[in-house]
Write a structure and sequence with these properties.
Length: 60
C-alpha cells in the first residue's frame, strides 16, 4: 500500500488546488465585416475577410 513518506505542507497542498495555473477560455473577437466571432489574427471562416480585406472568396 502506498503511504506518504512526509507530510504535505499547507502551502504545497494549496498551490496544487489553486486555479491560477489552469487554462483560460480561448480569446474571441468580432469580425469587422460580418460580426461573427473569430479567433484573433485569423481569417473569418464565415465571410473570408481579414482586417476589412477579402482574403478568401466565399461566394463560390
Amino acid at each position: 500500500m502506498a503511504v506518504p513518506k512526509r507530510k504535505v505542507s499547507k502551502a504545497r497542498r494549496d498551490k496544487r488546488r489553486s486555479a491560477v495555473w489552469k487554462l483560460d477560455a480561448p480569446a474571441f473577437s468580432r469580425c469587422s465585416h460580418c460580426g461573427a466571432l473569430t479567433a484573433p489574427h485569423k481569417v473569418c471562416k464565415n465571410c473570408g475577410y481579414y482586417k476589412g480585406v477579402e482574403v478568401i472568396n466565399k461566394e463560390a
